[in-house]
Amino acid sequence: MLTLKSILRGLNYQCVQGNTNVPVRAVSYHSDQVSSGDVYIAVKGYTVDGHDFIGKALSKGAGSIILQDSTFIINNDPRPFILVNDSRAALAIIAANYFDNPVNKLQLTGITGTNGKTTTACLIKAVLENNGIKTGLIGTIAYLIGNEQAGSGLSTPDALTLHSLFSAMVAQNVSACVMEVTSHALKQKRVEGLCFREAVYTNISYEHMDYHQTLTDYVAAKVRLFTGLGHDSMAILNRDDEHYKEFRAASTAGITLDYSLHDPRADIFATGIHIEHGLTRLVIDSPNGRLELQTVLPGLYNCANILAAVSTAIAKNIPIACIISGIESVKNVKGRFERIDYGQSYGIIIDYAHTPDALDKVITTILSHLQGKMITVFGSDGERDKVKRIMMGEVASRLSDITVLTTDNPRHENPEAIITDIAMGLLPGSDWARFPDRKQAIHFALSQAGPGDVVLIAGKGHENFQQVKDNRNYYDDRDSIREYFKKESI
């Protein structure tokens, strides 16, 4: 039988009252989810403090309480109260113990960075599976066990969900897992105690300043992935990124491989890149030999993602032929430069780009082969960094012939106010329109397109919802496009 003592293994704690030799049914840090015999962990959140709900958890039958603030201990309650230094870190360790540390049976690869995490993760997964390694994936698009979806949610889920997924992977004979590791997850210690065999860093650009406040704090959060690496781990670093030296200096990995599109000193270097007719050919030099491959994934930014995946595969000593065939097997990633075709005379692309840098790179890639007008549709998240909105407005208006501003996930903000913020960044004299209704915005953009033009619908990518106030309403850009062409054919 699972006991409180067994799930506290490896944790520095003080049993203030009660004893630890009590059975445990489940673990929760949401008081609403607590049932009789559960362990309730009081976590201090960004806006809510779980300590305030200890009384509620006890009333619902919690069998024990783990907390970091001793002032919330209820004296004379017979149930055990466990005091820890950091309940967030404790949650990660307890979650691992509760699920019997399944991650120890997986080769774990973590990917961090502002952009490119999802595509890089998909590329690495494809290479591993092409080499006969059944692989799980935890990321923005979905949680996958092999090729079966096991849910979706945060790019890096909470520790309990994370170890539950690891457990399910092990049960399905998965031997490797590739996961995106966000700055939020690192700062909130969701991945505390995980032993990454490889840690990959893609790039850093302006993002999440509503949470981190400063770029320094944002970078420091990302660097945490590399400061906990063991001597048998490998760090995979982007030599072209301006923060490369910070990651290199901080890494505790035994071996470091860096990759570059521009610097021949890199361990993995693209000596040749040729882009023509929607096909990119790369010649890559590596410590294990030369690779020559081709991909339909567009743009130099995807070349960088491919280098990151190749570097990880080289670190794992996967044969070059398997690396090439694995990379070439990836024809698209949902919501990443996803082309939509209804037989129209112009291009339609859906992309997740929701940062100034990502939007710039996607539009620039389109412009490299554009024959007509560039029409860009996008919005910006509510209750998030407002400065980013202005920056994205500048990028879109500078690179687009027509900019259409609309709604993304407004949450509790007024969509019109968000659009007004974005419009502050638009260049004087630019051609633009505003439609708070995203479907109307897309229909307007499509109505403005003619032969040779491209309509980019940015921001939501793979997502099939809009967060409006407290409601997560079903919404998919693909449906809006489909409705437009259905209406046009009537």
Summarize the structure.
Helices cover 33% and strands 22% of the residues. The protein is of the alpha/beta class and 490 residues long. Helix 15 packs across helix 16 (477-489).
Name of the CATH architecture of the largest domain: 3-Layer(aba) Sandwich
The number of helical elements comes to: 16
- Percent helix, as a range, is 25-40%
Question: What's the end-to-end separation, in Å?
Answer: 65 Å
Q: What would you call the shape?
A: globular
Radius of gyration: 24 Å
Q: If you average the pLDDT, what whole number results?
A: 95
CATH topology annotation of the largest domain = UDP-N-acetylmuramoyl-L-alanine:D-glutamate ligase
Q: Outline the low-pLDDT stretches.
A: none
* Domains, number: 3
What is the CATH first-level class name of the largest domain? Alpha Beta
CATH superfamily of the largest domain: Mur-like, catalytic domain
Please tally the β strands and state the result: 24
Structure description:
With 490 residues, this protein is of the alpha/beta class. The protein has 16 helices and 24 strands. It folds into three domains: 95 residues, 3-Layer(aba) Sandwich (Udp-n-acetylmuramoylalanyl-d-glutamate--2,6- Diaminopimelate Ligase, Chain: A, domain 1), CATH 3.40.1390; 227 residues, Mur-like, catalytic domain (UDP-N-acetylmuramoyl-L-alanine:D-glutamate ligase, 3-Layer(aba) Sandwich), CATH 3.40.1190.10; 152 residues, Protein-Tyrosine Phosphatase, Chain A (Alpha-Beta Complex), CATH 3.90.190. Helix 4 crosses helix 10, helix 13 crosses helix 14 and helix 15 crosses helix 16. The mean pLDDT is 95.
